[in-house]
## 1
Amino acid sequence: MAELLVAPIDLQLLGLLELPSDLPERLSIAEAAEATGLTAHTLRYYERIGLVSVDRDESGYRSYDRHALTRIVFVTRLRASDMPIAAIGHYLDLVEQGPGTEPERLAIMQAHRATILRRLHDLQSALAVTDYKIAAYTPESGRSL
Amino acid sequence: MAELLVAPIDLQLLGLLELPSDLPERLSIAEAAEATGLTAHTLRYYERIGLVSVDRDESGYRSYDRHALTRIVFVTRLRASDMPIAAIGHYLDLVEQGPGTEPERLAIMQAHRATILRRLHDLQSALAVTDYKIAAYTPESGRSL
DNA sequence: GCTTGCCTTTGAGCGCACTCGAAGGCATAC
DNA sequence: GTATGCCTTCGAGTGCGCTCAAAGGCAAGC
């Protein structure tokens, strides 16, 4: 099998869920893993639980096309913001169901947006505490916790 | 037993790890749970795994003083930023060991700070994707994933 | 034709952070 | 004195998201 030369997916493009145009049309599972930063184990797991469906080549090997890749990248973005896998699955089921489900999809994303904003706030708060501790340890300064 | 009237701890004060001055000197586990937003179960768990030590009153009931409360709040801040409990425990062990461990404590906090910044970045990225989806669903607009 | 390496499926196992249940003690209310 | 409600300890159970192991197939290199 050829050397793995698939570049990890660009963060900018990721934000908009467009894949780099120089990606091969079809990737093996190892290449998909390299491109997405997931492990082959995790890619199989995501397929098994129905988050994505993946073609097979003549030998029965997985063959990831752009659609599959795009979806996986989308899933990783949602996972990176701690959306539960079940919720992601539900959303993607709605996508599969097609037209008519947009209002619910919108509601899901709006709710998730609120969750992200809460998380951002919590993290800022934790960052403040951490900086406070760092400041306390950095000069010869006073009491620690 | 008296009604629970302990106010949840203020977020501003939380940031700097100072408790409101109108908190009772000693809190029952139910009051501590109310003040910190944790459950009594979780408070017992944190004590059991050595994150905090808590006094007992004459009847053997837990009695949380300001020191214990402050530490618990600190732990919740670190947990809110996903610091693993084992890492928190390690840090607090260093605190218990007292002088001489400051450099390692500083290093831990600096590493944690870097982790928080990464998380913030990831969340911003996820927020962008989420907003993108929301925008796609909100007017009568085009293709969804 | 055999080794090597990547692939397949299925099912089980793991680590983390809680979360709960059982069995019983204390103290106030009646 | 007994019911109520909050408390105790200890050990076990849960849910999530992977992660790994076993047993075997395919295909290129020697």
## 2
Amino acid sequence: MAANKDKKMVEQITSMDVDFAQWYTDVVKKAELADYSGVKGCMIIRPYGYAIWENIQRELDARFKKTGHENVYMPMFIPESLLQKEKDHVEGFAPECAIVTIGGQNKLAERLIVRPTSETVFCEHFKNVIQSYRDLPKLYNQWVNVVRWEKTTRPFLRTSEFLWQEGHTMHETEEEAREETLRMLGVYEEFYLNCLAIPAITGRKTEKEKFAGAEETYTIEPMMHNGVALQGGTSHYFGDGFAKAFDITFTGRDNKVYYPHQTSWGVSTRMIGAIIMAHGDDNGLILPPAIAPIQLVIIPVAQHKEGVLEKANELKARLEAQGIRVKLDDSDQSTGWKYSQYEMKGVPVRLEIGPRDIESGNCVLVSRVSREKNFVAIDSVEAEVEKMLKFVHDELVERARVNLAQKTTKAATYEEFLDAAENKPGFIKAMWCGDSECEDKLKDVTGGVKSRCIPFNEEHIADTCVCCGKPAKHMVVWGRQY
RNA sequence: CGAGGUGUAGCGAAGGUGGUAUCGCGCAUCGUUCGGGACGAUGAGAUCGCAGGUUCGAGUCCUGUCACUUCGACCA
């Protein structure tokens, strides 16, 4: 019986080491996060997965409001002519647009693009509501779906339709807009660390990797367990490029006409993929407590015996009073089944309560990260649970830090770079001359290693570009991405 | 878009040479269990991805098509 224990527990989930991609898909399905739909690349986000998204939304939305932003809703259809107003923008998005050509029974006079992002619609609106410097800044955000016709899709990481938030702001001065761009990247960074338990690298995208139409793109790049990067969120400074293309002007304090300066920033349901791949293990998902739909699950043992369910309910009420998200599973599944079930779903802490515990005045607490049983006094359960939730968060951060550090290699020379790209999955820190041809070449010879960003805290690794040997301008973090 | 793989019950699979579909899990009911995915009994559940074709007869052979998936290319 005991000999089969470990084997049985991993039976339904492919081991990460055997096949990481399959492991990921297994976790998505077994943790009941999402299901495939009848439309390619479109997924059904199931209640448990959506609850994670709701928690993410709640946390982020509070941060957006606190920094002065207002939520709005823009239409999902964009007239084709509108999208075409900014040249770089349309070139960037045209290949992946879904287009509506028929309304009801009639062919439309103008085709409608299903929004891949909403800069253009916001701009059209900004043109109407911005007249004076008194109308600035405009600090808008929306929580919506967008569609990008991706060729290769994967649940959460890359789907044809996905949910996200897109912040769009307009400012009187360049300084103010640049400040906003970095402020929101900072919000993302803080959220990743404190809510998702993911310490991530932040920095600036190279010219080649910038958003279509942006002057600067800043990014947050979390690393997954297997060393692959994920573009975890972006914040763009647009300058007045869109404002000029859309003829958005305002009268300044000196009664002269100016173009406002613009930003946009977004994170998506892709973050759920990041949580899975940054924290999960062979037993399934591990959720950071801050966004876990269930922070603690109570498993009653021998629940038919007198007093067990009563005690379990009492504990549930006490913990809920502390603001903890609790589920009591009193279904008639076996306890062993329940243990496995909630481990697959990544519930941070489990509480077991049975006749023996009630007699001794204890209960059993098990964290999803250590999976060791701890006997704690029922009297002090609130404090012990709080402590364990904090432990899970801290442990996840620590593990992710170690993973990031272990899977980051410095390369001073071309040979070192190739060796790292070939043999050491993860990030490579290396110097760069600033020429996009070197980016192309490195990507080519390594089969996919691209520049992630120029981090804010650059290190000096060498004097010359790792690729061409010309004087280096920046240190770049390189890596493969999802 | 290129190369491969897979579509049979909710899930996973078996179904040489054509003869009317089988198993495991899950599900339902009842009983016994309950501290790491319990056990027994009974039962429900499938127009074999879809559309054509060959044939007396197609899950099986042929043609087309769709979806999913892996790896690449592409992608902010």
## 3
Amino acid sequence: MNTAPVRVRFAPSPTGYLHVGGLRTALYNFLFARAQGGSMVLRIEDTDRGRYVEGAVENLLTTLAWAGIDVDEGPAQGGPHGPYVQSERTALYREHCELLLGKDKAYRCFCTPEQLDAARARQMAEGRDAAYDRSCRALGKEEVEARLRDGLPYTVRLKVPLSGSLRFDDVIRGDITVMHEVIDDQVLLKSDGFPTYHLANVVDDHFMAITHVIRGEEWLPSTAKHVLLYEAFGWQPPVFAHLPLLLNADRSKLSKRQGDVAVEDYRAKGFLPEALVNFVALLGWNPGDDRELFTIDELCDAFSLERVSKAGAVFDLEKLRWFNAQYLRTQPTERLLELCGPWLREAGIDVSDSARTHALLELLASYLTVPADIAAQLEPFAAGAVVPEDDEAKEALQAESAVVVLRALLPRLMHVEPWSAEHIKNMINEVKTESGVKGKALFMPIRVALTGRAHGPELGIVAELIGREQCLQRLRDAVA
RNA sequence: GGCGCGUUCGUCUAGCGGCUAGGACGUGGCCCUCUCAAGGCCAAAACACGGGUUCGAUUCCCGUACGCGCUACCA
């Protein structure tokens, strides 16, 4: 039994942005570490220099911080097991390749990519499995040395046992058995001197004292190779936990083209980190009771790998929107202002009048799913004339009693003091008494005249916030 | 093709041999209300299929089907 303190890692490769699937993996690692009183490492896996994207690491760091996922060790904060960027650890990988070579657990392969491609094509054409034919595995010592003297480029491959099988335990999936014969002699060190994922991952996880490897299910098939590596080195493998995939609506692996997959896209659209984290946490995990709304701290307390499910989960934007609306509605007005600020200004709202701005936000909060929704809600409150927006609104103004109501209200609003929702409401009541018009027939024409819309928040408050001058002008326009 | 993993309402899921199969999103209806949003209540909606095991299977086992993943000198 492993009694060492829990250490987990999130190990993305810096190829651009943080994928929402990556966010969930990072989150589960974080939650598990917190739940277990352990620590979390961030490691940058940049061994493929061809795919490296400038600025990707910075972007990753900002995005994780935005989501509230704090790592304990990593490129930004350092730590006792650094460096935390793989391209700065190449000597370690090469050294360990030599170790494997010396133990006869690996061998040099001088096949060129062209040869390998051709061989693969041939195998496919013959309807056989495409796998490395292991021709270099049989090379004699002298032959290898001759080629090395000639300066031929080579890769280092893992010497996979030819028969038998191996098993490992996955916390989420249970016991998994793989026949050695279906495992390829995996390349460990590329001819450019960089390690492949498999080698770097195993070496780093070992030296960074990682106890639990929590990663996406796409890694499940290659875990056998990793286990073989741990055995070859004589190291204790970590506990594995392979998470179910996040899926598109058609149940394929979540990808671009079918919607946004970058966390920064959701951030840009005004989704709150709390909402995204809450939503994504529940994709593949549940607390075992009916709770749905969780702060990240509550998630830390509730999380366990035992409650992670096995099947992939469709990323349902509608449910994310619901979470966002839930959080948006309960934000203090100050935060709402911060979130909606850009759209307020765009809508021509005078944000310097903070009392009015706050009142508007409080009034409209329940109408928002994302902050951008505020724009449409704000239209009636901006300066300028309004026109009935649809047939329903037009009809309300055309009703025979409409003009009676509006004519009766106009002078009253001119003189009502103070200009407040309560007093405006009183005036509307006076109109009701005087004209005998009530209910919908009374309110609808006023609402449409003032806002151009048939629907909206309570009329008294709406009128108060539109302001006396605008209200009077709009009433005059409507009866003209 | 091979190997691996998976399969409860449209979606996220609860269930760990005996339940009217529960909750949430979405959908529909009702209530509240001048209207809408929010909120409350109600409704429709699922155990992939076939064999076993068992007194009894959504649950355990084996097949089949379907889906997904992997099968690179990418991660």
## 4
Amino acid sequence: MIKKFAFNNQFILNELPETERDSLVRSMKSKKYRKNQAVFSEGSIPSGVFYINDGKAKKFKLDSEGREQIIYIYNEGEFFGYSSLLSEEPYGDSVSVIEDANISFIAKENFMELIDSSPTFSRLLLKSLSHEFSVMANFMAVLSQRTVRERVALSLLILHDKYKVSSDEEISVSRLDLSNMVGTVVETLARILHDFKEEGLITTEGRIIRIINQDALVKISNFY
Amino acid sequence: MIKKFAFNNQFILNELPETERDSLVRSMKSKKYRKNQAVFSEGSIPSGVFYINDGKAKKFKLDSEGREQIIYIYNEGEFFGYSSLLSEEPYGDSVSVIEDANISFIAKENFMELIDSSPTFSRLLLKSLSHEFSVMANFMAVLSQRTVRERVALSLLILHDKYKVSSDEEISVSRLDLSNMVGTVVETLARILHDFKEEGLITTEGRIIRIINQDALVKISNFY
DNA sequence: TGATAAATTTGATTTAAGTCAAATTATCTT
DNA sequence: AAGATAATTTGACTTAAATCAAATTTATCA
């Protein structure tokens, strides 16, 4: 169920034949990013793609009033930024790091060269983009049809899934980021987290959220 | 501005070299669909891709309560259904015809064969999927951040753009479909259309909507 | 065409979620 | 570690949009 909300494009690297993988990995230049640092911003011109070795980043859009809608949280092992490169358009959204991260950059030339030389790579990218498309459609339907309470429950489950890999079972995002992912306002989010605590579904400690009763959250999220 | 909300994948056919285009076109089998007829449904297994020769179709998701969120309205000249095929997953959404249509089907084998044999075709699909991804992100942000009034204005502009090609400047969709595109309820939609009429921005005649003052709608939509 | 059903509109009311304001708590920074 | 700044929570209130109900208009097809 949660996998309907995860890009999970790790398979690109895993399923790539050794030669191509080596070539891709060799062209990566890694760089450290501090929390809140921007990787790229909407409107600028893509010059390559990114791969998260470690850490997390948010993909988001700002509207004219400066409100932010988080579209996706990238986790370690995921590629990003290739859709704008491939569509030959400026970035349609922004990516910023939400916890200290180590991110590799693959220059446009290297990336395009690999696409041209490797049908397998193209094929994997097609598969990945197609899956990402379905994730977006799922999330869009959730944002437009479900209540804030349902969306908070679902977002916690999505984040739990991302954080279980690295930090043991602890979700650590700012309330503002969480509210921007849910598509609500921090005050409303705080109230709902308060409710969830009272109902014994989660515990919090500063910005850290721990999920106690996953099944109940699944029920509340009302998503099958 | 409106092109941020259009897949516009007509370029696939236009930019395809003649040999490949011929091969693709030869493998098409056209079929007539009546209004409201389903082309495919969420959960079923893709067996090919579709191309609209004539007519319009809606891509949508149903939630557990049976509410429908329209994700996109396909127009003549657009391909659809290839993202599920390429992601090797069951359909993540449904497509139904909203006015009598003539739609061609390309069997999976033919489509995949062309991908394998034509790097240009792969490349065009990558470009198309990437663009579609950005359209989804744009629409998602609109659904989560903008008021119903703003969304109605934007949706009318989007539809106007689709309908100007075929029927001269007349939008003809059911109020229910329009409300499901906007992400609201028919009653609320009716009220807002009423307001727009009073403000002299549109006229209606049965289900037909004509846009009188496009600039004003752009302003109301509050999208740049 | 006329009858029946379906779609659309309007009215009255409720409610979920947003806004504004303030208090409390956490987190940086030096 | 203290002080300053930022983040989070809580309270009171407002509002946009949903719901429920009914009337009216439009479409369908026998």
